[in-house]
Amino acid sequence: MWSSEWLILLVGLPFLGSLLTALLPSHSRSAANWLAGAMALACFGIAISAYSSVTDGMVVRHQVEWVPHLGLSLTLRLDGFAWMFSMLITGIGALVILYARYYMSPKDPVVRFYALLLAFMGAMQGLVVSGNIILLAVFWELTSIFSFLLIGYWHHNQAARDGARMALTITGAGGLCLLAGMVLLGQIVGSYDLDVVLQSGDLIRASDLYLPTLLLILAGALTKSAQFPFHFWLPNAMAAPTPVSAYLHSATMVKAGVFLLTRFWPVLSGTDAWFFIVGFAGLSTLLIGAYFAIFQHDLKGLLAYSTISHLGLVTTLLSLGSPLAAVAAIFHMVNHATFKASLFMAAGIIDHEAGTRDMRRLSGLFSFLPITATLAMVASAAMAGVPLLNGFLSKEMFFAETLEQHRASVLDTVTPYVATIAAAFAVTYSIRLIHTVFFGPRASDLPKVPHEPPRWMRLPIELLVLACLVVGTIPGLSIGSYLDTAVVSVLGDATPVYSLSIWHGFNLPLAMSIVALLGGIVLYMALKSYLDWCEEGPPIFRRLKGQRIFERILVAVSWRWARVAERFLGTRRLQPQLRLIVVAAILAGVWAMWGARHLAPQLTISGVDPVLAMMWLVGGGCAVAAAYQAKFHRLAALIFLGVAGLVTCITFVWLSAPDLGVTQLLVEIVTTVLILLGLRWLPKRDDQIERHGFWVRLRRGRDFFIAVIAGAGMALLAYYMMMTPLPPSVGDYYLQHAYSEGGGTNVVNVILVDFRGFDTLGEIVVLAVVALTVFALLRRFRPAEDNSELPYQQREQNEYDSIQRDREVGETLKDYLLVPSVIMRWMFAAITLLAAYLFLRGHDLPGGGFAAGVAMAIGFLLQYLAGGTRWVEERLRIRPVQWIGFGLLAATATGLGSLTVGYPFLTSYFQYTEVPFIGGVPTASALFFDLGVFSLVVGATVLMLVAIAHQSLRAPKARPDRAVAERAAVEQGES
Amino acid sequence: MFDTLLLWPVILPLAGAALAAALHAFPAVQRQVALTTMVLTFGASLFLVDAVMEGAILTKAFGGWMPPFGIVFVADRFSAAMVVISSLLALCALVFAMGDLRQRQVRSGFYPLFLGLMIGVNGAFLTGDIFNLYVWFEVMLIATLGLITLDRTRAQIDGAIKYAVLNLFSTILFLMAVGLLYGATGTLNMADLAVVLPQTEPSAALTLTAMMFLLAFGIKAGFFPMFFWLPASYHTASIIVSAVFAGLLTKVGVYALFRVFTLLFEVDNGTLKPLIAVIAAGTMLFGVFGAAIQWDVRRILSFHIISQIGYIMLGLAVATPLALAGAVFYIIHHIVVKANLFFVAGAIHRATGSFDLRKSGGLMKASPLLAVLFAIPALSLAGIPPLSGFWAKFMVVDASFQGEAAWLAAVALFVGLLTIFSMSKIWIEAFWKEHPRAVRARPVPAVMLVPIAALGIITLAIGFNPEPLVAFSNLAAESMGDRTQLIGAFYGGEHTAGVTP
Q1: What is the 3 state secondary structure string of A422-466?
Q2: Taking all residues of chain A, what is their mean pLDDT, rounded to a whole number?
């Protein structure tokens, strides 16, 4: 008995080989080739040895758990059908590697080539032996990726890149559909196990999800096998090196689609949907592929379309739903792989030897390459379906099947005719291939003088052609039992009686073959002269290229739709962005409230204090006015903003929150002064802003409307919330426990430094980061050009100084506001004292570290205002960054301190300390925390102040060139 | 030690940031401080995840105030995983920075700001208090702003202003929502809210509060149609910063959304579910469309962040346990992969001198190693099996099919296709195409490749052996979906030793 563990080797060896090859140094061409060949041969050997275990419908399974939570296991499952494919994959793989040894140019990085080829072999091998349908989809996607990488192997070539990308897009899309189909299949069946799925045919066909599942799986299969209307990627994939074309795009990967159809044939086929969709795709592909193939000038192009057509034949057979047709389909897959791979290799030799693949230039090559030519002729004859070759046998079976009635319909009626016509076309292009390339006058203008390739390069072709001959003459003895093994594994009990003999007597299929043969010859005679000079591509359909359509769609999706989407939604200007967001917010609110009108609150204005309401009207008006003026008059806007802030401040006091009032007031002062200082460095107002045009008004009106809706909605909501009584809240707890547990009567402060000290820690980090950011931003800031000169007032003063004989320039400026500045200097001590006072009383009365810090910062601020930057910094060394660092560290350390004594982070410790002369002073460890806050606030505020103040010290160096360059860069980035 | 596990991922960066700020004058020392801090933080986060691995939910009340009165940190599997992955990413970024950070950027305060960002990120993942969450969001917002404008170029200022304005709008919405929530319930502790909210009468305020949370976090997370700030700002920042932003910022928004909409509000209440579904689909589609027309690698990647956020939201839109597990898996996968792609973009820039795909090329020949290192996250992002992205997509797609939302699965797969397309564009232009000016690619320093390789290995490891993470995500989603577990952890009291009642 063949051990099932070998299956792991069968799939794993190529991947292992790929990895090893990739690690070889890039010049080790021979080693890479030997390694790859050895791996392929080893797998071939394993596959051969497995035969006895898969005959008569036996199955070898090996299961390794992989992702049990997703119902996914690494199940490898080898039956007769998969065995047959394994033989093709490993056998032809080994031949292709041998062939590639002579084909690849010394300039090519072959190590990468073999690594990719082996990886592909592993993926393909995995695909055919997957016993789990999700695993199958996994390998399926991998084959697409390696196909992409192999098509684009000569990536300096534009055609290779485009072809690779197209193949990836089409087969990748198919792969995703397949994955979705497999997920659905798993849902219907309740398992991803292939064996379970294969036993649930009736369940699947009866399911509601049958049609979507079928469509998705078909989308995967038809794209992979290049079936109409997805066929066009295959001819474009011919930019790949010929070994790749021979291996992936004729023998193996494109067969994955029909492999899948065959695999699921027992459970999916036999319905109208299957018959019509698959049948239509197969028949049209059969005909179109053959027709297009006639008119290709590129050897590989012809072979590509021929491949498409033959795959169409297999698809058509599978669509019929009869077991005999399935037998024919499986048989033809093998036959096609042999003759087409050998033809591709022959085409590669011709290309290699003659330097071109253009059939209009190639002629009379028989005398140069007699052996290759003979081999190619035999293979072409097999492709055309000439008796005594394998292609004939499966084609006869195909004809016989088309004549049977399957499902009464037009499609069924036309099938025999279409089949005969397509067969005639196949004869035509086969003759064309042979006749043009090998016969006729000896070509004289070839890039190279051709001669026979090395012995070993021809060997793969010889072996494959031999297979064609042997199967064609003695089918029963050569392939009979193997085919039977494959067929039984798919069809099981439904396996029909079929005969592989060459001679079935004079019957209708034979007549069809003869008609096709003669018709093809006649057609070739008629077309011969036209084909010598015509353009590439078939008449009539020349312009209707799938590729073009694909590109159109791609451009539409990836470019045009995207542009539209960007135009509407990807705006790069801030105002429309903000508008969209606000509108979205309003819409979301409407959406939420649409069905919930009963929840809408009853609003009343009773109980509102008229004075407070008036104040709020003023404050709100000022806020709106500030917004209105922000663009036109910054100073005015700032003043309005100040009033709005003051109203807030008074409101806090009104609502009995003196602590917040104090803090708000101090913050108002500092921010207003800082902004005032900063205003100096903003660019001047732009007088060009249009104020009165119709569209401008309309736009502003709309924006105003949106703003009012959003603002009013929010205000209403807030008002309603404040009118409803507060449920029992954590706030009550804070009020009750601030003193007893936190040791402070100022609840706000206790909340800040104790109850919710962590919030405060976070907030001071915010403040620190803001300061650092402002500092970093302004560190090498160059003000706008139009305000880099001294202000008007200072210029006047200096001018006055220079006119007066007894005054130095700058003296007036120094004496300016002398009295106030002296007072301001004196204030420093007072403010420091105030800060200390605020700080110390913070725990019990309004104040605290934050307020104290802001107050202290105001002290510094006044010094800068009074004395000027130089004066202050000559006398006072402030290191704000260190203050910030210290503050953060102090606050953190206080928190960590409680850890050392076994309490949670930031636990406050509280006691009364006896201080001489003062008596008992409440001391909480939170005080140190507050000290950190204080230090940080001072540091942060002063850092921002210093950053702004230092602007005026810096010699204004306007660098227009740089500014212009940057602006250009921004615009370029946006266009 | 066990008792303080929750603290260190926040306090270590905090101390590090303070030290780095204090050592402003010594850039080399700052680097040491930052690296040490992040190594320690990462180590601490590993301890944390180890502690919750078995399903325990750790809580820690700070200041010794029992919940709901004090601020509580909480770690379950989801949050611990987020902390681990963010700390790892930050560490990688710092290593990458050793090769790519300019002296000028250090002087502009890179290290304190960077560590400041990590305070906010880890704080947001660990907090169990809705207002405290707001505080960490603010820390993040401000630190981000500083990091964007590190070079003070015109483009950066422009990006930063958009970032600031739009995110401030979100922050304001968040704050108002917290205010309304407090007004309606009188508490801020999330577990307490989870107890109180079901007993509170439905009102317009609560409905709108839910909507405001959705919008506020949605803006942060980069939802359609509110994602403008993201593509406007990410590509302007230095690449280290972009990588961390790409990995973490939007995910914090998503994380908050998941918390709020599993713990406080129900997705399944009729109005929210279709809305979130539409948002998820729109986010997926518009992100990927936006990426299609870009030529700047960073812009392409930025738009892909948006589309991937859509996938994660798909998990919330479907809201079954499988879908939530898929979302958790997706978030973790996406943080690793997207940050890595930005690092690779930085390496491409170093090698070719440009972020613009039209001006780069020839890397396949010049640096095959970089090609492999790009291929791993790129294929993973596109959902190619067997990389981490495939499992993420598989889980959410599977969940949508099972959750009767096949159209979402269809959108997801379609977007997956366009993502493949988009990644192949970068691959073809930067790696396959010859360099347009035939310039030799410059070498990329090893310190820049190390983090790329490390994250690539993680991607591969998740890809080839997804089972542990799938199982972990399942459990994480389970405990996230079951609010009683979290409430029990808050009030169980076994980890809140030292509480002053």
Answers
A1: HHHHHHHHHHHHHHHHHCCCCCCCCCCCCCCCCHHHHHHHHHHHH
A2: 84
